[in-house]
Amino acid sequence: MRKIVLLLLACMLLGGCTASNKATMVNGEIDTAPRVMGLEYRDFEEAAAKSVNDMLASGAVNRPGGGRYVLVVSRIINDTMQNIDTDQLVKKIRVELLRSGKVVTTTAMGLGGAEDPMVAEARKLRQSEEVNQGTVAEKGKIIAPDLSLSGKIIQRNHSLNSSTQQVEYYFMLSLTDISSGLAFWEGEAPIIKRGSNKSVSW
User: Fold this and answer.
1) Where does the UniProt annotation place the signal sequence (predicted)?
2) Are 98 and 174 in contact (CB under 8 A)?
């Protein structure tokens, strides 16, 4: 009898551990997933959507005479307390702009070098006798960018009272015409969160 009771207790404990380790998919249930004080995927989605909608509404990416602008991503500075990858924001903006049909992005160049190094690597095949030279990219074919996207993500923490804090994130972006150096568009997408002082935002 004692062995049976111990066996049942062991099964219950194992079942409890298994249940607590289960993961839950939140895709498709974005609104019901719990929020956190730090930056998360929904914040990047909201900031990107607001920025792109504002950019499109302003007419900044409407090229005179038609056609599409070529956009290059410049520096996006992370001035928050968190170790975030700014590419998470940039990629969403690029995807939405590409879908708009008004902008294409170049991956052949960037501040830290080409985003896609294969563009340059493929051109080294011009020296290879094993490669059909008629299929190798010709010289002078890379398109220079028209516009540059730069910006900064800022975080500000405020203590509202002994139990509540407010964390403010500002996604500040600029779209610059490379030829003239003039900003065609500038926007700010704030994400404001309020919660317990016990919650951390880094």
Assistant:
1) 1-22
2) no
